[in-house]
Structure formats: C-alpha cells, structure tokens
Write a structure and sequence with these properties.
It contains 10 helices and no strands. By secondary structure, the protein is mainly alpha-helical.
C-alpha cells in the first residue's frame, strides 16, 4: 500500500493505519533528530513529538511532495526548534557526556575489550568535538550536513526538504565541510 493510499484511509477515519507510517519512517525521523540533538533520549522524545505533529497536521498534507519529504521537514523544524529553546540543557548534556554519564553508552560507539583505553578516550573526545563543531555551523549548513551524513540523502532530496535548489544544497554542503575542516584543524592545533 502506498503512502498516499494509507493517508487517504487515515483521513477517511481509519486512524489505526497511521501505525504503518510510523513503522515505515520511525528510524528515518529518529536519525534526523539524533543528528541535531546527539542524545538518544531527546531524539526518542522528539521522534514521538514529530509523529504527533504529523498526525495532527495530516489533513493539511497536500501531496505536492512525497510524504517522506514532508515528514523530514517536520523533523528538521522540530529539531531546530528544540535546539533554539533549550541550548543550555544541551550544553549540560554534553558536559555530562564528557564527564561520563549514563548516556555515554548511547552517545559513543561500542569498543572492543582488546582496544587500548587511550585510543578509546581519544576517539570519544574526537566524536564529541565533531558534534560540538557541527552544532556551531549556521542553521542551513547544519541542516544540509545532517540530512546528507546522518540520513544519507541525495542533494535532490535535501533540496526538496529544504525547499531550495540542488545547487544551493551543494554550496551549503561545501561551506559546511570547509567550516568543519577549519574548526577541526584549529582544535588539532590547540592540543
């Protein structure tokens, strides 16, 4: 059953069919939220909020773009709004991650028992620095790089989501990569 068929049934009163859309797009929305928030619990909560918002807004979905594109827009906007509303909370979460908290396993990739502890710490520090650098990018660059790297979307798909041209997306990605390289190079020189 296509997305448009499922949406039609939902709008006709078969609200249980929304579960199909949730199951199909939950991981996509979670990855997007995680790309902005870097915290599993917050990304889980925001993923639920995105689907609630999508459900409530479904009567306004006109079908001018793919449902997934529309849902990405909701996820990106919700993520950006969350960052804008609670930057202090995000700073404290990052401090907890660096200091070692219960979210550490959720934030960093698993390690093997044989791996050198110094290498583990260096890799975790590097991951944290990349996340902080990513968060300092201008909003449109941040959005483009998250959709490109976390969600592995094409420039065409990103352009649809961001309501811009493919050329603009390419320029945003190039500027984002350049800014990240500069920030990471500066971090390496300051060590």
């Amino acid at each position: 059953m296509s997305d448009s068929e499922v949406i039609k049934l939902i709008l006709q009163g078969d609200k249980e069919k929304f579960r199909i859309l949730v199951e199909q797009y939950q991981q996509m929305v979670f990855r997007t939220c995680m790309g902005f928030l870097h915290n599993k619990d917050d990304a889980d909560d925001l993923t639920q909020d995105v689907f609630i918002q999508a459900y409530l807004s479904l009567p306004h979905f006109k079908g001018g773009s793919a449902f997934s594109t529309w849902l990405y827009r909701i996820a990106v906007n919700a993520s950006l709004n969350k960052i804008r509303k609670s930057p202090l909370k995000l700073i404290f979460q990052r401090f907890e991650n660096i200091a070692g908290s219960k979210n550490e396993k959720e934030t960093y990739p698993s390690v093997s028992v044989e791996e050198d502890p110094e290498n583990i710490l260096i890799r975790q520090e590097h991951i944290e620095w990349v996340k902080r650098s990513l968060d300092t990018l201008p909003e449109n660059q941040h959005t483009a790089i998250v959709l490109s790297r976390y969600d592995d979307l094409s420039q065409k798909e990103i352009a649809e989501i961001m309501d811009t041209t493919e050329g603009a997306v390419e320029a945003l990605l190039q500027r984002a990569k350049k800014n990240l390289r500069e920030k990471l190079s500066a971090h390496g020189k300051n060590k």
